[in-house]
Amino acid sequence: MTTTTLSVVEALELCQPLLGSARETLRVFPANDRGGDALGPRDVERCNEVLAGIGASYGLTVPRFVWPAPDKPSSLEVALSNFLDLEPGVWQPVADRSGEPSGGAAGLAGLAALPGRRRVRAEGLPSFDSFSSGAASPDGEAVVLVLPCGVPAALFRPWLDELSADRQVVTYENPYLFGDWESLDTPDGDFAEEVALVGAVLAEYGLRRAQLIGICGGAPVALAAAAEFGDRVETLTVLHPDLNFGEGVMRTPFQKQFQGLLAGAASGHRRAREVLDLFLDPNMLFGVPTRLAPYVLYPYGDLELFHRYARLNNALMAYDANEAARRIGQRVLIATSRTDRMTHPETAHHFHGLVAGAARVAERDSGSHHDILIPDREIYAMIREFVGGGA
Prior knowledge:
This protein is of the alpha/beta class. It has 15 helices and ten strands.
């Protein structure tokens, strides 16, 4: 297999959550018209032969290659095309091959596979998948990542790898959005159930010293879990937290508009269809890094999946965090940036003022909200120092 074809295999492997969630086969094309000028009908046919061979050899869901680019691609298709366009002219070498690539399933790089998959079962909850890396601690300590709603855990594989050098790291996926989600009734947006999922993870792994990390939209769940489970949570870290403290505490225009759209989409499938069509406009990708787009767009591949996501995420954004913030006694680390246009940095400072115990705000002078989702050694070092007892 050529290096370029292998790169396409790896990219498709990483994009499996999005490709698998889409109800229809997604189209891909040379991004920004790069490298497409020399492609003729036979080249397009060959590209699709190679994609079909990749799907058959590696058991992957694959897109359909088209050229010229379609007039009205969806945001999903643009995101996927940008992700696959690893270098200018990447598709011409693919077109120079035909048929099934060699190598078989053993050639998969395992980039999207999460380690330590375990099924969690708890009374009153649907079963769900958790993932872990690193050796279990005899005193029940582990880092527990609470992820943004609807973002596949595969995006956080680097976090599990990086943070597990000296302790166990655990995360999980919401059963109403991942795995066999279609077998479950539509969730009603019960926030208490979100907290119960964290409790089920603590029980499953026998954790008595959890270092909770709530990332973006996972922050309200992590905060509520820290208040609920008390001594079983040793520290709480929230990164660019999307927390709601009610009137008088700044929220960004994005937060207000996004929650309004989610509330509408949560009300029923008809309104969900209208809102989903807005998000399928490629203009919605403005400001979203290419490497993140296929992950953050996961819930938008299917109407029912998006409706469920809207119900769950609207509940997270509507949760009043005031009482929980006043109840927690753990050490707290709050990270934000002055230029975050998605979650207002004032929220982080307000939260800091409510915490009764030791709390610290780490505020960068610049940086977008999405920065926290991109692997960053400085972030990892900050987390290690904090959970290890540093200032």
